[in-house]
Write the structure tokens for this entry.
Amino acid sequence: MEVATTITEVRRLVRQARQRGRTIGLVPTMGALHPGHVSLIEAAAGRCDFIVVSIFVNPTQFGPSEDFAKYPRPIEQDLAICKDHGVDLVFTPSAEEMYGQGGLTWVEVERLTSPLCGRFRPGHFRGVTTVCAKLFNIVLPDLAFFGQKDAQQAVVIRRMVKDLNMPLEIVVCPTVREPDGLAMSSRNRYLSPSHRGQAATIYRALRHGEDEIRRGVKDAGKLADAITAILRQVPGIALQYVSIVDAESLQPKDPVTGEVLVAVAVRIGSTRLIDNIVVDAG
Amino acid sequence: MEVATTITEVRRLVRQARQRGRTIGLVPTMGALHPGHVSLIEAAAGRCDFIVVSIFVNPTQFGPSEDFAKYPRPIEQDLAICKDHGVDLVFTPSAEEMYGQGGLTWVEVERLTSPLCGRFRPGHFRGVTTVCAKLFNIVLPDLAFFGQKDAQQAVVIRRMVKDLNMPLEIVVCPTVREPDGLAMSSRNRYLSPSHRGQAATIYRALRHGEDEIRRGVKDAGKLADAITAILRQVPGIALQYVSIVDAESLQPKDPVTGEVLVAVAVRIGSTRLIDNIVVDAG
């Protein structure tokens, strides 16, 4: 496994691989790798010959009061995980390597970035789309792999790729969960043991929403209330949103029909967690 | 020479050329080709093996009161010019092929797009950068060629390519001029004979500014006044701006030192014309 810290070096190694006829798969991450990331690496290995994992805690997608400084950076562990799972190349640039004296150029996706997390994290998706555009241009992958846990991010990036005719395919992989249902996230390690226990309620609440949809409940407000009621039973959870939206347009869907995204964001203590399920509401 | 109207077809033909080891040069145009464009094609032929010219009157770079509808579209003449000059592939997409049901994604360059034409054409550069990002992603050229006549556009696109790590080189070619000095432009054909005569004053005024700089005038305001005075002698000319800025940052430069861009925008009748010169002010 190679580890590159410069754009020039990544380009050289990817070019070599391509000249040998390999297809290139990119898994963009912020590190602190967990089984969710590993599932992306495995999905990439199933479809590509040369697997690139980028590890970059991207400053432009964090708000000023968010957790950029304390975001975990266990680089040695991350490299060991990549090596264990057959990654060919890890790209770990510095912020200076990625942004130099500061970029003036932004890639912005309108409309899809306004609801859900967009309401609570102004500028977040602009940072995500800009850094992904950069990573795609640096690595030039045939495929790039993202997790369904960040559902809005996946929709936004898919749309960016389509709108800008970027020459790659976006693959979105299922959310990987702990045994009690909590979605794997690098931020789970912020949770105290008691908060960690409470966090399992998020998925329970989503599953209850799914059950209600399958029982024929079509009223989006009632569904949101039912999910909210379960989350409110846990005193440590502060709700940001419960939204039931079209899985592609991310617009509110009421009555609930077709493929819907049921998405939740909460704070537990100072930790922000998101989760979602996609349900075919018929 | 091949002519493609679809993205799929362009990609197929470029991929073929690349597989034969050809380097790819792109000349993005809005058609109505003139000797300025021909000089770009010739520059591309000098450095690349496979020349792609795109002809697309890009709606997103025109303001609502601008000349999108009347912009000249002499496609048969344009194809003949391309063929005569050894172009390998002309890409003439429809607006629907380029934007489908309407894109949500924009590429924006901050700061560099605010002064000069940015003040008079809000949204223009956003349209330019977005369509260029799309064309670059569709054609995947090694080099793309732009004219110095659109100096701010060249600076903005160079910066976009750098900031987003786009894998191509931008080549900016000298302005081509009529015998009386008027910069070649597709919009020159809007001019009535009397306006056409007046239009030569623009370059005369720029040259006067250059002479003043070479004579040691460093005061940007005085230089702008001297240029303005010449333009004001022509009653048909309505001035938009005379600006003396740093050639790279496009920020005002006073006193005038180093590489400066002396740029002018005017209206003659209903036709908007721009021109510029770069002067090393020492």
